Amino acid sequence: MQLTNRAKKTDKSELSLFERSYLPSLATGLGITIKHFFQAKPTIEYPEQKRYLGPVFRGHHILKRDEEGRERCTACGLCAVACPAEAISMVAQERVKGEEHLYREEKYAAVYEINMLRCIFCGLCEEACPKQAVYLRHDKFVPVFTDRSDVIYGKDQLVEDMNQRYQRDAWTKEDAMKLWK
Amino acid sequence: MSSFVQWLTESMFLWKALIIIVIFAITLGIAAYSTWAERKVAAYIQDRRGPNRAGWGGLLQPLADAGKMFFKEDFIPAQADRWLFILGPCLSMFTALMSSAVVPFGNSFIIGGKEVFVQAIEINIGILYVFGVVSLGVYGVMIGGWASNNKFSLLGAIRAASQNISYELAMGMSIIAILMMSGTLSLREIVAQQHGGNWNVFYQPLGFLIFTVCAFAECNRTPFDLPECETELVGGYHTEYSSMKLGFYLFAEYINMFASSAVTACLFFGGYNYPGMDFVESQLISALGANAGHNVATLVGIGSMFTKILFGIFFFMWVRWTVPRFRYDQLMNLGWKGLIPLAVGNLVVTAGAILSGYKLVGIWIGLALMVVLISVGWSMRPKKKNAIMGA
């Protein structure tokens, strides 16, 4: 029974003397390799050249602010609960009078820490967040650690800088293909 | 004392010493950069870039590799035969370095009215010397594999020994055909006879093919690298080796490649000869004077020799990254049942052609006759019945 039409019938007839001399197939093989020798190489020289990874790449975490520059996080702890690697921990605090321009909700995270050695960049914190506060950026990697004390990222490294706001580019496939080129 | 100084300046001693040192340095340099070239060629054939971090285009990679090799732990297994274990790589390296001594890399320099050949030693049995040294090379592998006291090493060594012995026969017979035509064993004279485009490869196409295949086997290069076949023998004869001892074995392989490319260039591609060299030399002599013109022409000849050698090395690499490794029985079949009968046939054809007086035409007609005979014999072989094949 034929399931697909991709099956190829192999030629099992006996080799001729010419073919058995091994020279014709050797010449063909040498031709193929020399063709590849002169072909353009697809290598991207990584540290110098970086590829566009796509709008849905999950990289460095970011704690977003809203349009007025207030932190969106309300320290509900859902991200920490969702985290399969238990990388996230936080300490909640109540917003006092005069801090309304800093924190959007009445409760905020005084400490928000992600252990980058534990994090597996699955993006479940992003999905769990009810306030659209935590995101994994598509345009930035977590760099290499050279010391254990560098591993835990606090709010100083995570909260968004209002001067360089993070935005996802390419929301449509067409936009992404343009950037990919 | 003054007579000694006079002897030193008048004799060829200084010039010969200089030439030997230069050839030695060039051999080592080319072998070192062959490791870099091997990795680059492999990378380019496999659509990669290859080493490009150490220096421009990875050109400092051989230094980095050698540095790594030197600083690795130099381990000798407890059950190994210590002295033989150390002797193995030394012998391998020693014989590899000796083989290029008789190769004429260029014509001659005229210095102070004396003619100095660009060759370490000119002996009238050059080819025999190369063969002797190359067959000694297997001792390094054999002793190393034996002294390691390891099954895989020993198997690799046995393979190396039997492979080298088997292929030396066919190689020797393909060269005898050349010797019959040239009538001399001296590499310099063989090269000189190929002057003016009379390259032996046109006279001995089959001999060249056999010689090349055997050279691959003698250098333990893919597709005949069974002595160090990783998939079966861990690392073959150098399984137990580490540090610079391993480095010596690997390095000796590249030196052997260089030497065999040089010998191939001398035997089949006219050595330092190139088309139109007489015209170039006469132009240079009229432009620069007799001596200087001759010396510059010799330099050009050396350039042509090294072009041929480098292409030979490239060909070694090109084949390595094209052809998969042979099975051991296939290797032996090819050697004993394929190449040796062909070499004998080639010998007969060459002899007939020399007797007939028309060398070039005679050899090609003879080879064509041989092909016809073989294919007739092939078509008359008893056919096997095979139910599975059907077709």
Task: Outline the fold blueprint.
The complex is a heterodimer of chains A (181) and B (391).
Chain A: H1 17-20, H2 23-38, E1 61-63, H3 78-82, E2 88-94, E3 107-115, H4 124-128, E4 134-136, E5 152-153, H5 155-158, H6 173-180
Antiparallel strand pairs in A: 1-4, 2-3, 3-5
Chain B: H1 2-10, H2 13-45, H3 61-71, H4 82-98, E1 108-111, E2 114-117, H5 126-147, H6 151-182, H7 187-193, H8 200-203, H9 205-218, H10 230-233, H11 243-268, H12 277-288, H13 290-320, H14 328-356, H15 359-379
Antiparallel strand pairs in B: 1-2
Structure notes:
The complex is a heterodimer of chains A (181) and B (391). Helix content of chain A is 23%, strand content 13%. By secondary structure, chain A is of the alpha+beta class. In chain A, the strands form two sheets. A three-stranded antiparallel β-sheet of chain A has the order 2-3-5. In chain A, strands 1-4 form a two-stranded antiparallel sheet. The longest helix of chain A is centred in the first third of the chain and has 16 residues, at 23-38. Chain B has a two-stranded antiparallel ribbon. Chains A and B meet through helix 2 of A and helix 2 and helix 15 of B.
